Amino acid sequence: MRTHLKTALAFLRNTWRGLTSMRTALVLLFLLAMASLPGALIPQRSQNQTEVDRYFDEYPTLAPVLDDLGVFEVFSSVWFASIYVLLFISLIGCLVPRCAEHYRQWRAKPVRTPRNLSRMPHHAETTVDGSVDDALGAARSRLRGWRTAEEEEPDGARSISAERGYLREAGNLIFHFALVGLLIAFAGGKLYNYEGQVIVMADGSEFCNAGTYNYDSFIAGLNVDGTGLNEFCVRVNDFDVQYQHTGQVQSYVVDTEYQSTEDLQTGQWQPHRLEVNHPLRTSGDRVYLTGNGYAPQFTVTFPDGQQRTQLTQWQPVDVPTMLSQGATKFDRPGVEDERERRQNQIAVSGLFAPTPAFDGAVLSSQFPDLNDPTVAVDVLRGDLGLDSGRGQSIFSVDQQMVEQGRLNREARENLRVGEEVRLADGTTVRFDGVERFANLQVSHDPTQMWVLGFAILIIAGIGASLTIKRRRVWVRARPADPADPDAGRTIVEIGGLARTDQAGYGEEFYTLTEDILGTDADRTSETRADLGAARGRND
Amino acid sequence: MAVNETLSTYSDMAYATSVVLYMFAMLLYFAEFSYKRSANPAAAAQRERELVGAGGGSAAGTGVGRVETPAKRPMAERLGGMAVAITVLGALVHGASLIARGVSTGRAPWGNMYEFGSSICLAAVLAWLIVLYRQSRKVHRDTTAVQLRALGGFLMLPVAVLLFLSGTVLYAEASQLEPALQSYWIVIHVSAAIVSTGVLLLAGVASLLYLVRVRHENSPEKMAAVGSRLPGSRALDRVAYRATVIIFPVWTFAIVAGAIWAEAAWGRFWGWDPKETVSFIAWIVYAAYLHARATAGWRGVRSAWINVFGLAVMIFNLFFINIVVAGLHSYAGI
Ligand code: HEM
């Protein structure tokens, strides 16, 4: 039993050691890089659902297998998570002892001057005028900013040991801990964030962040149930788009007003110029402009004189020219009977071009701005299928209804603003004009400032860790003539050791010895110290 | 704001001139390279050892860091000197081309793939010149600038190719940026990414040559033609390591700045967009390189391979992700 326990403990200890070794960290880093790769090469659901669907069409046998492996959601897959969790366990296991060690070094005195300084990788020696005191004084003032300790040696020599660059390790530890912090903040954000999309007409329409039902789509973290959203309202007054002559967009400016906190009670509105790169930040939420489009307005006048007007967004199908497609749907007013009502619904469905171009009678658009707004529409009458229980797109009519003959085309016409088309029973459909709409996105992520803070620590930490060098210098001064210590000649010897990569240390050592010893000291520098390693021998 | 057509034409002309100059410099570097007596490998190794010794400033009276100059400068050295001079000239003309682009459009001159590629090359060339300059100062070094010049042709080659591709296939007329790119973050984020990519290109080339050189050093009959003329493996490793170490925090910063910009432009700071993903992968690979350098058994050849792999990821990120994969960065315009 005891031995079992012992083997189990030994096993655990060895596993732990293995897990926290640099080698394991290296392997896990590689695995993480490899595991991320499909995320860039294979379409991801979180990015682009349509691309994923296309992938399924193109590789009907492969795609389901990949799907089971989670390849279409790499960054939320179990295997991806297990790699980084292991990596972070390894990291913490590696950091804690390093912290303790660093603390000890921080408190300790610089290492005593070794007896034989000429065996150090860097060494310089010369004889100077002046006493031992003078020499040490010069060294001391040159080594200001270093951590030093002085020592009397038995044979009358005195020495200073100096060390510098403790911040390197501190920076490194900060960097690694900040990585952990960033991951935790990032993961926390994923629990509490939400992102909603909504379309708002640029005619003074309002949107309020009162509940998820106000959104066209709403994605939220696990801990968000859609209640208790931060309250604010946005009103879109005007939408100004500037185009270059090429049709490329020069700028979008959405003239908005918003109210939050007290304004909600007092009814005050605050103005805000919403632009790309300039979201509205209020109540801990952000409102972005993510897209735009046109909404044509139609008025239907029924034979009995009743009128109905609708402004409905149509979907841009060709973004450079803003050719748009949609369907605007009407119920006949004043009809009580359910069946009769359903036989008299009207849809105006087709294409919209802000600046039309005709190929025969086929409409396309040649420029995205509103130069001569034109629609090419079918007017359909019958049952739109709105009560069929099937969901339907707001941008098209239900084709099944057309196929079953329950929805019939009664006219096909190209209309400019103000023009109308008359149906057989005297109903007219007029194209009144067009309004722009804005696609707004409301985002909420309570931890993003934390993520930013950790990211800044990461940069600061790694900067310190990679630019600061940990290095030691020892200066020893002894009388040139031990028999006559006051003769005024002193032998000064300096040894140097870079505790991390030697690169660049020689330079500092050179200037340091120049300052203390003058230019004609004898110097040796071991440039071959790590030659074996650099030669590619894998030791 | 309208584009100044005259100025952008001058910019294009300067660009073409700089490509020609770089190619000329490349030929001169290679001329110096092949002029160098490779002699027999053993002698070359011997000479290398001597040079290292001299570079180390051993007690000999040559002075620290100076290899004694022979009475007459050999042909090879004169070619190399010309190569460097022409590289400097090329960089000046290249810089002028970018400035003219920037002024003609009234914005930072890295708004599309053509301009981006051009800036990266300039960053790589400048990094190279800085390395040469630092190497030629009097404090002692393990290699002299003259020896290091053997790298020159191998750096100018990818630079010339990249510039050629940018100037032809990827060329874009000078024009205004679309709204999402109109932000001061383009100056911060993109310039950091440009400098990082340029310097990492230099580091990757050094690591690649290191691999060649090590093979040659370990068995002199291998890779003799190239290997024997390269600087010592230690010097190559040093260039690669120093370049990577200096630029890794900058690359980290570039990614963080990108995330801050994305928060303002795209509505979230990180969304695993293909560009973001591959930048993350490259970051991990370079972190692995730094770790490998500190791990027994991974120094030397293995870590050099990681650095080369890192460069491959960066290049993949530049071309494949911008052009082939549809992502938010694709709109940077080709
Ligand atoms: C998310 C994973 C990690 C990343 C991105 C990362 C990144 C880095 C970077 C960029 C450095 C600087 C290299 C240098 O100072 O030369 C570094 C150093 C270091 N890392 Fe990590 N690291 C990670 C995980 C780990 C783990 C799991 C361990 C321990 C098992 C570890 C141990 C170390 C050590 C000891 C150093 C100092 C090496 C040196 O001074 O050269 N790291 N790390």
TrEMBL record, chain A:
It is found in: Membrane. GO terms for biological process: cytochrome complex assembly. Keywords: Cytochrome c-type biogenesis, Membrane, Transmembrane, Transmembrane helix. Signal peptide: none annotated. GO terms for cellular component: membrane. Its main location: membrane. It is a multi-pass membrane protein. This is Cytochrome c biogenesis protein ResB. InterPro entries: Cyt_c_bgen_Ccs1/CcsB/ResB (IPR023494), ResB-like_domain (IPR007816). PANTHER family: CYTOCHROME C BIOGENESIS PROTEIN CCS1, CHLOROPLASTIC. Pfam families: ResB (PF05140). Residues 22-509 form the ResB-like domain. The chain crosses the membrane at residues 78-100, 173-192, 449-468.
UniProtKB/TrEMBL annotation, chain B:
One of its GO terms (cellular component) is plasma membrane. It is found in: Membrane. Keywords: Cytochrome c-type biogenesis, Membrane, Transmembrane, Transmembrane helix. One of its GO terms (molecular function) is heme binding. Its main location: membrane. Residues 111-329 form the Cytochrome c assembly protein domain. The keyword Cytoplasm does not apply. The chain crosses the membrane at residues 13-31, 79-100, 112-133, 154-172, 184-212, 239-262, 274-292, 304-328. InterPro entries: Cyt_c_assembly (IPR002541), Cyt_c_biogenesis_CcsA (IPR017562), Cyt_c_biogenesis_CcsA/CcmC (IPR045062). It is a multi-pass membrane protein. NCBIfam families: cytochr_II_ccsB. PANTHER family: CYTOCHROME B_B6 PROTEIN-RELATED, HEME EXPORTER PROTEIN C. This is C-type cytochrome biogenesis protein CcsB. It comes from Saccharopolyspora montiporae. The lineage of its organism: Bacteria, Bacillati, Actinomycetota, Actinomycetes, Pseudonocardiales. The gene is ccsB.
